[in-house]
Specification:
With about 300 residues, the protein is mainly α. Helices cover about 70% and strands about 5% of the residues. It has one domain.
Length: about 300
């Protein structure tokens, strides 16, 4: 019998996809291509990284592409799509938006990864006390660059108003993203081999990235932001919190619960205008029937 936690986690991937494909479908083939290439990129980078580094392995999900769950590729595609939709509505220059995209993705992984390995969704093979509660520091390094390079490859050409910007930019994003990730994997795994320096360089990367974004004093919501930018991270955060509390795994140690709550609150803060819009739509009273005077 399939593990219920695995099944429910897999469902979250497809729920995120429903939100993203619904938006992409309404906004044309260029958006659909970006979402689909993001999914293909997610599957490709997982297959390549497992073979390149042999650092982790996945548990058995319902739908697998070789040794990678299809849902993981879908999750990567949805994260890419959602963070890029958010940053593209900001005042940041196109070349800084990939940095923000990488940081937004890390908001998800900081609460997810250490709990996920306790469920057995994937296994780093180092025990639960290794580095960040069983998660190698290099994992956060990789998460940032996965998002950054795909986003950068896309933004370099999507600014064009011709067929290259519309049709080729998602494919260029795939190529730039894949080569960028494999290159940074080599750097962190084979050149920086000391655990201390891996942690230091990863922390330094995140501090520098955050400093660059803040230096531009970004303004957000300069144009309408789709609700999926909130739902994609929120679905993951709420699953981690609820499943983690029911199973008790998020309390091993309790610090993981604190991190999960903080990351969830950060997501709410960043997407609060979208949350308000969702609440307004849900709580809006139905329009009352016309009064007799109105019909006269």
């Amino acid at each position: 019998m399939p593990n219920l936690y695995f099944v429910l986690y897999e469902i979250t991937f497809y729920l995120q996809f429903v939100f993203c494909i619904g938006h992409a479908w309404k906004h044309g083939m260029g958006n659909i291509l970006r979402l689909l290439m993001g999914i293909l990129f997610g599957i490709s980078l997982e297959l390549a990284t497992i073979r390149q580094l042999n650092a982790y392995e996945y548990g058995q999900f319902l739908i697998m592409v070789l040794d990678v769950p299809l849902g993981i590729g879908i999750a990567w595609g949805c994260i890419l799509y959602s963070v890029m939709e958010f940053s593209d509505a900001s005042s940041l220059p196109y070349f800084v938006r990939p940095i923000l995209d990488g940081l937004l993705a890390l908001n998800i992984d900081l609460s997810l990864d250490a709990v996920a390995i306790r469920f057995g969704f994937w296994n780093w093979g180092e025990g639960l006390n290794f580095e960040y509660f069983g998660v190698p520091y290099a994992n956060f390094w990789a998460w940032f660059w996965v998002i950054f390079f795909f986003s950068l490859g896309y933004h370099l050409f999507a600014r064009r108003d011709d067929w290259v910007g519309k049709w080729l930019s998602p494919f260029i994003a795939y190529i730039v993203g894949l080569f960028g990730v494999l290159g940074t994997n080599v750097f962190i795994a084979f050149i920086i081999q000391t655990q201390f320096y891996r942690g230091l360089i990863t922390l330094s990367l995140l501090v520098i990235a955050l400093t660059i974004v803040l230096a531009f004093r970004p303004k957000f919501y300069l144009k309408p932001v789709p609700s999926l930018t909130f739902w994609v991270p929120f679905i993951t955060h709420i699953y981690v919190l609820i499943a983690g509390l029911i199973s008790g795994l998020i309390l091993d140690p309790p610090f993981l619960l604190l991190v999960g709550l903080v990351m969830t609150l950060i997501a709410f803060y960043l997407h609060w205008p979208t949350v308000q819009q969702i609440l307004t739509t849900v709580l809006k009273p139905p329009s009352s029937a016309a009064s007799p005077r109105d019909t006269q």
